[in-house]
Each structure stands twice: as C-alpha cells, then as structure tokens.
Amino acid sequence: MDDVMSRDLISDLPQSIIESILTRLPIRDAVRTSILSSKWRYKWATLTQLVFDEKCVILSNDRCKVEDGLVNFITRTLFLHQGPIHKFQLTTTHLQCCPDIDQWLLFLSRNDIKELVLELGEGEWFRVPSCLFNCKKLTRLDLFRCEFDPPPSFKGFLCLKSLNLHQVLVSPEAIESLISGCPLLESLALSYFDSLALTIRAPNLKFLCLEGEFKDICLENTPLLVAMSVAMYMTDDIAEHFEQSSTCNFNRFLGGVPRLERLIGHIYFTKFLSIGDDVGRLPITYAHLKVVELNQVSFEDMKEILVVLRLITNSPNLKELQISGSSNTLAAIDAPDLDFWEDECPSNCTFKQLRVVRMTDMSGVPHEMEFIKFLLANSPALETMSISPCVYVMDGRLNMLIELLRFRRASAQAEILFIQD
C-alpha cells in the first residue's frame, strides 16, 4: 500500500492527457509546473495551444514594468517551446505596436500555426507583418485593432475556416480578395468598419456577422449561409447614398440564401433592405428559416413594412419572430391608407409553425396594430405573443390593450402578454 501511495501516478500519465490538463491551466501556471520535479521540467514545452494575457505577469501601476514583464515572459516561453504551435492567442491592452510581436509572428509562421488571435488595446494600431501571409495552415484568424495589408503575391489562406476582423484598417478590395481567397471559409465577422462597400463571395460560408457603417453589402455567392447578424450604422452621407440607389437591396442581400435558419437585423437593417426597386415576388422560399429578429422597424415607412411581410410570408417554417419598432409617432399616425394590408398580404398566408412572437417598443400606431392583427389571424400554432409599449407611450396604452383584445386569434391557445415596465 505504501508503494502505491508513494508512486507519482500523475507523472506517469500519457503525454496527451498531461497536455490536456496543462492546456486547461493559465499559461503562467502551466509553465510553473516545471518546478515540480525533473520529470515535469519541460512537459509544458510541448503544448500546442498558447494563450497569453495580462495575467501572465504581476500587474503594477508601472505600465513599462508590466509591458517588459509580458514581453519577456512570451519571448522566453516561445524560446523554450518544442514542437508545433497550433494556437497562439494574445489578449492585452499593454502591447500595441511592440516590435517583439513581429518576431513572435515570424516564429509562429515556421511552427505550423493554425489558430491566431491578436486582440490589442487602444493606442497606435499594430501593422500585421508580411510573415503572417506565409501561414499556409491557418484555420482561424482573429485580428483586433490592426492594420492589414496583404502583399500583391498573396492568394489567400486555403485552409482558413473562421475570420474575425474587428476595427481593422484594410481596403475593401483587400477584404473581398481575402474572403474569395479562402475557399473553406465557414464563419466571417466584420465589425466597426467605416463607409465600407462589400461584395461577399464565399461558397462555404455558414455564419456571418456584420457591424459598422456599410455603404453597400452584396451576398453574391453564399448558398450555404445558415445564420447572420447585421448591424448597420448610418451617417448622413451613407443615407444620401442609399436614397440615390435604384437596385433592390433585398434581392442583392437575401436573394441567394435559401438555407438561412436564423436572421438578426439590428439598427437600419430593414431600412437598407427596403432601398431600391419594389422587391415584388421573391426568387426563393426560406424553407429553413426558423428565427427572425428585426430591430427598429419604422412602421411609418411602407417599404420597410413590405420588406418584413415579404420575408416572413416566404418563411413557411418560421417558429419565432421578434420585432422592435422605431416609429415616428406623428408620421405613423398619418400613414397611408390601411387598404395596404388587403392589397399586400396574401389571402392564403398561414404561419403554421409560428409559436412565439415578441413585439417591443410599440407605439400603437395604425400599421403596428394592423401587423399584430395580421399575425394573430394567421398563426394557428401561436402560443405566446408578448407586446411591450414604447416608453414614450403612456396615455394610449389602455386603448392599445383594448384593441389587442378585440383581434381575432387563429390559435385558441394563444396568450397575449402586455408588458409594461
């Protein structure tokens, strides 16, 4: 029994299990295991995943001391490392344009790096060195606050599956070329770009997240897309550019995504889709679309309402719908004739799968109420409809509630929740 108790069972575990244990530790603690015994001195040195942040060093009010400590720790870790490094992640607010980062990336480019995450803080932007574009085995690339300028000879990352660019200085041409040059790309996130016009060609793309000031977005070749989230911020210049457009943004953006399952549109999204010619009959049916969330829909704008109707009436398997309003109450009260709903809503429309509807920031203006009435009358499987009035609507809440209770419901089980904060 004493022999069993005295044996070092952990040290005798297979290297793969030890590496799995060490990978779950902060890198600083993993390196410190080298003091346990001679057997453990270099066990950490074969880790294929290295994640560095400011916890690697003792924090101090002396910024230079923290920077020097972090640089020395990372440099020494890489110098003593043995074998391939498949993942390198650096998250820090202390190192913006540290020249040592260039040397680390050069080292990584020679060590089969597959996942690279650089999340740098405020300050001067880090310019990505050319050696990054020699990382032929990259499957994931996340860059935060960097300058990104691929050389003319760069043809793309042939193995890349995930690309996340956040506050990255790069030309639209370079982004489009990069996306097109990644034939296996499945996940794309672009955030905090200014006045960007973008055409996305990515035949294997499944997940898309866009956030920023976009002058134009076109999904030209994304047939496998299943989920997207889009937030558009609109300056006066971009708004003027939109108003002068004649092409149908709805078709250019949603006309080629037949496998879409989840759609989240934030600020100005439905406004963007409504620009251009009348969408008319849609070229596709969204047979897989189950969840739709549209924020800040202007119910005084008939083209925006039409966008919402075209989208949901062409989604036969829709299960969950969430819409927030942003109506100019005075303009919405003076809205055009309500015959619009009889003219534009198909008489045989039925939302057979729709179970949950959430309507927030509602003002109770005519077209909002007609939209709610339309949903209730054509959703036989509806379980819950929750309605939250806009904070600016106080006097009209009772009238809104009375009108809601008069609407016919296709579902006998449908419960209306009138939520007042």
UniProtKB/TrEMBL annotation:
* Superkingdom per UniProt: Eukaryota
Q: Name one Pfam family in it.
A: FBD
Q: What PROSITE patterns does the database record attribute to this sequence?
A: FBOX
Signal peptide feature range = none
Tell me where in this chain the F-box domain is found: 7-41
Q: Which PANTHER family match?
A: F-BOX DOMAIN-CONTAINING PROTEIN, F-BOX PROTEIN-LIKE
Specify the protein name.
Answer: F-box domain-containing protein
* Organism encoding this protein: Gossypium anomalum
